[in-house]
Write a structure and sequence with these properties.
The complex is a heterodimer of chains A (236) and B (311). Chain A is an all-alpha fold and 236 residues long. Chain A contains twelve helices and no strands. With 311 residues, chain B is of the alpha/beta class. Chain B has two domains: 220 residues, 3-Layer(aba) Sandwich (Rossmann fold), CATH 3.40.50.300; 72 residues, Ribosomal protein S10 (Alpha-Beta Plaits), CATH 3.30.70. The relative contact order of chain B is 0.13. Chains A and B meet through α1 and α5 of A and α2 and α3 of B.
Chain lengths: 236, 311
């Protein structure tokens, strides 16, 4: 079996054998259910825009929790040394870890398909718009996971990794407000690099190539940075 | 099988390894000894490609560290210090993960897991989570994982740490058995263990390789002379006088206990067969020997002397 797939399998086994993943997943579904039910029952709108606009905030809390142990614990427990002495490249280790966590996040999103299915029973839904919104959420989850994986590579302490990851995601979330202090040209330039801006653009149902490229580039940059950081730690 | 040439490792200003060179032949079991912080683990980390050396060259199975490290790692089974394991997994899943990472097919893996579980006494605990296991069992899991892909070279960092005496004996036997087919480099603080298992020893101190050889060779290097303890029955005054005359430049002490005389003779000259000469002197002077013991430096003595533990 390919070492990346083996690592994905291992991450999956480790996650399903520990209560943390179940606790985080249950809390996520509870919180996302609240935001979905809020617009449906309290505001009386049979649509998912409210739910998707809250999703980056939920991700900001939950993704660092799911990612914090990925590399921090490997380094703290010494299993990283074991991994590095196996016939596998550091980049493959990082990819295996990333795809492992992205798979878990994808399954979490998959579980929320229950919401549009419920809506479809009540009335007509815009399948295209919801589909693009899910794609946007899936890519945003991947971008955030790559950032939090990088945070986890910086320290041996999982709590510190959570704080770094959360701090980075908070900064991204607040980027729009921060950029308002700057000129329009700076705002437009920086917006190109903000996954939130691309996510919000996709929520409008527009699937632009620039949105996809930015999200994927964000993943690639942070996975490269993680690989570099792990290599640097060994060479130090 | 293992060639290390002039390896240096620096962490900032601290020199962890200082121009270390040695070679280990195929099928040898070699012990790496040294006090804490001497550079044993660093040497092992370099050989397993975890750490790149600051300078110098090393190769395993003819593959240099700066060539194809992936192929090199396939030739190594490594048990790091304290046997780090994925404790959330059960033993079988951990072994399966390690085997798959080494590219073993499912069918081969099944057979290998069964074989290693048998060899390391893990058959009873294969389905148990690693975090529920004792330190001894965890050590065995680490050892089994390191041998799963049948590597020609095993590098074991403190393989018996934390084991009880029975487990130590079991692991020792296992390593001895492995040594019949594989090249083994192991580090340990338990000198008696290294003495029992290894054919040769490398002693490292403050990053420098200070001695290499079998226990006997190291004892000779470390000894400052030789000593014979002999017990005579009855009157030994005649033979004592003869010994004092013959070994005038040596230290001789004696005391009587009942009808026996205990004599200790320490001679600086290591080239002569001291015990034979003592025996011949006893025969010449009609003295009856009831005990004759040639003192040899133990590995502990050698280690303490070479690493500066002895004043």
């Amino acid at each position: 079996m390919n070492p990346i797939l083996t690592l994905v399998w291992k991450e999956w086994r480790c996650a399903t054998d520990t209560p943390l993943a179940y606790v985080v997943a249950a809390a996520f579904l509870l919180a996302s259910g609240f935001f979905f039910g809020n617009s449906l029952f309290l505001i009386g709108q049979a649509e998912m825009r409210g739910y998707f606009s809250w999703l980056p905030i939920l991700f900001m809390f939950f993704i660092p929790a799911l990612c914090m142990r990925l590399l921090a614990d490997e380094q703290r427990l010494g299993t990283f040394e074991l991994l590095c002495t196996l016939p596998v490249q550091t980049s493959q280790v990082v990819l295996g870890k990333f795809f492992g966590i992205w798979l878990q996040l994808s399954l979490l999103l998959l579980l929320t398909f229950f919401y549009p299915l419920t809506l479809s029973l009540i009335g007509d839904i815009d399948v295209g718009q919801i589909g693009v919104s899910y794609l946007a959420a899936w890519l945003l989850a991947g971008s955030y996971a790559a950032i939090c994986l990088f945070a986890s590579s910086l320290t041996k302490n999982a709590v510190v990794a959570y704080m770094i990851g959360f701090g980075c995601l908070l900064l991204i979330f607040l980027m729009g407000q921060i950029l308002m202090q700057f000129s329009a040209s700076v705002q437009n330039t920086m917006a190109m690099f903000s996954p939130i801006q691309h996510y919000q653009a996709m929520l409008r149902g527009i699937l632009g190539l620039d949105n996809l490229v930015c999200m994927l580039a964000m993943i690639l940059v942070f996975l490269s940075a993680t690989t570099f950081q792990l290599e640097r730690r060994r060479w130090k | 099988m293992i060639e290390v040439n002039d390896i240096c490792q620096k962490y900032g200003q601290h020199v962890a390894l200082d121009h270390v060179s040695f070679s280990i032949q195929k099928g040898e079991v070699v012990g790496l000894l040294g006090p804490n912080g001497a550079g044993k683990s660093t040497t092992m980390k370099i050989l397993t490609c975890y750490l790149p050396p600051s300078s110098g060259q090393a190769s395993i199975a003819g593959i240099s560290l700066d060539q194809d490290t992936i192929s090199l790692r396939r030739n190594i089974g490594y048990l790091p210090e304290n046997a780090p394991l994925y404790t959330e997994l059960d033993v079988q899943s951990h072994l399966r993960f390690m085997g798959r990472m080494h590219g073993l097919s499912s069918a081969t893996l099944r057979d290998k897991i069964a074989e290693m579980a048998q060899a390391c006494g893990l058959s009873e605990v294969l389905k148990r989570r690693i975090d529920e296991l004792s330190k001894g069992f965890r050590q065995r899991v680490g050892l089994a994982a390191s041998m799963l892909h049948d590597p020609p070279c095993l590098i074991l960092d403190e393989p018996t740490t934390g084991l009880d005496p029975n487990q130590i004996v079991e692991i020792r036997h296992l390593i001895q058995k492995l040594g019949e087919k594989k090249t083994v480099l192991l580090s340990s603080h338990v000198l008696s263990e290294v003495e029992a298992v290894c054919q040769r020893m490398l002693i490292i101190d403050q990053g420098k390789l200070i001695a290499s050889g079998s226990v006997q060779e190291l004892a000779q290097q470390a000894q400052s002379g030789q000593q014979v303890d002999v017990t005579f029955k009855g009157d030994a005054s005649q033979v004592l006088a003869a010994l004092r005359a013959q070994f005038s430049d040596s230290r001789l002490s004696s005391h009587e206990e009942g009808d026996e005389t205990h004599v200790s003779l320490h001679c600086l000259n290591t080239q002569i067969a001291l015990s034979e000469l003592v025996f011949q002197a006893a025969v010449k002077n009609d003295a009856v020997i009831v005990a004759l013991h040639r003192q040899q430096a133990s590995l502990e003595d050698v280690f303490r002397k070479l690493t500066g533990g002895e004043a």
